[in-house]
Amino acid sequence: MSTSRGLRLAGGTALAAAGALLALGWARKNLVVVTVQGTSMLPTLQDGDRVLVRRRPLAQVRQGDVVVLEPPLDGPYLPGPAGPDGRIWNVKRAAALPGDTLPPGIPNGDIRRGGGTVPPGALAVLGDNPDSIDSRHRGLFSGDRLLGVVVRRLSVTQRPSQRPEAWQMATRSRDV
Q1: For the whole model, what pTM was predicted?
Q2: Whether residue 142 lies in the annotated active site
Q3: pLDDT (tens digit, 9 = 90+) per residue, 66-107?
Q4: Using CA atoms, how far apart are residues 106 and 113, in angstroms rounded to an integer?
Q5: Cα separation of 144 and 147, whole Å?
């Protein structure tokens, strides 16, 4: 191998390695894997599903995006147990963004809830499951507590129909 060809090959390898390191650094800064806990996003996401989240500010969220954010820490519905990072995360769907009219079922009438429209720096979120504890119960969520937007599901938890023992437990009589 000639010296100039060897130098080109070494330079190309170094450039590829530098590019890979830059990509890895970007991914570590901008992407997070979150495990869904609970049933608030059924049927879209199930307890145990893992999702890839891209960190985004509120200004880059669109109505209908599935988002991960910290819940309000006040009010009658206290959040569940903390995750491995010590923080409590909710996975919900962005229903209304700053300036949007509040969707039906989300209370309004006080300053925190915007009096009919979502104020700057806040968003209304809903779970896909109608029994979800979301903005209908907790009011608006702060955009400052937004982790990001779900990009894709990475793994799917087996549904009860795929796990015979779970199906049997789900259909077993509840008489005591």
Answers
A1: 0.73
A2: no
A3: 999 998 876 666 666 676 677 888 999 999 999 999 988 887
A4: 9
A5: 9
- Tokens 């039906």 map to which residue? 104
Would you state the pLDDT for residue 87? 82
| Per annotation, catalytic residue among 92, 132, 161, 173 | 92
31-35 and 122-126: which strand pairing?
unpaired
User: Comparing C-alpha atoms, which of 86, 159, 100, 169 is closest to residue 135?
Assistant: 100
Q: Are 60 and 17 a contacting pair, CB within 8 Å?
A: no
- Of 172, 160, 171, 115, nearest in space to 140 by CA: 115
* CA-atom Rg of the chain in angstroms: 22
Q: Which of 2, 29, 40, 161 is catalytic?
A: 40
Domain boundaries, the chain: 30-158
Topology classification of domain 30-158: Umud Fragment, subunit A (2.10.109)
Contact 104, 98 (CB under 8 A): no
Residue 53 amino acid letter: V
Average pLDDT over every residue of 103-120: 70
pLDDT for 80 equals 63
pLDDT of 173 > 60? The answer is: no
Query: Per the structure block, which two tokens stand in for 72?
Result: 């309000």
For residue 40, indicate whether it is catalytic: yes
Q: What is the pLDDT of residues 11-32, one digit of tens each?
A: 777 666 666 666 666 567 779 9
